[in-house]
Prior knowledge:
By secondary structure, the chain is α/β, with parallel strands linked by helices. The protein has helices spanning 16-28, 46-54, 83-88, 113-138, and strands at 4-10, 32-38, 77-80, 98-100.
Amino acid sequence: MEKKRVLILCTGNSCRSQMAEGWVRHDLGDKVEVFSAGTRPSVVHPFAIAVMAEAGVDISSQRSKSLQEYWGQPFDLVVTVCDSAREACPAFPGAAKQIHESFPDPTGFRGTEAELRKKFREVRDQIRQRLVPLLRNELTL
């Protein structure tokens, strides 16, 4: 059985889409080939790497990529995980289907390091709880 191709988009490709890529690869990697990108890529946030490692998922080798790297490639599903990416890319050429599932941006939270890590953990957990089942349903896995 050929793997379904999924692209996850956000703005910076530094946090939410990186964690989503990690979860999808971890939970659905036998059925899904997953990629992530950003409309304005930056670097993978160290707290995203750290909180995913706490959950047993290594995203330390992932890098922030521009959506231009994937522009026009065929995907079974493209998912935007932030409102800004949905506005910047309302239709992705090559996508059989495109959906939106927004998650809060933990990098926008202000507080102590401990509070910030807690926020990253909350978003990490929301992504796994909401996005993985959504993909299973959308891709009929």
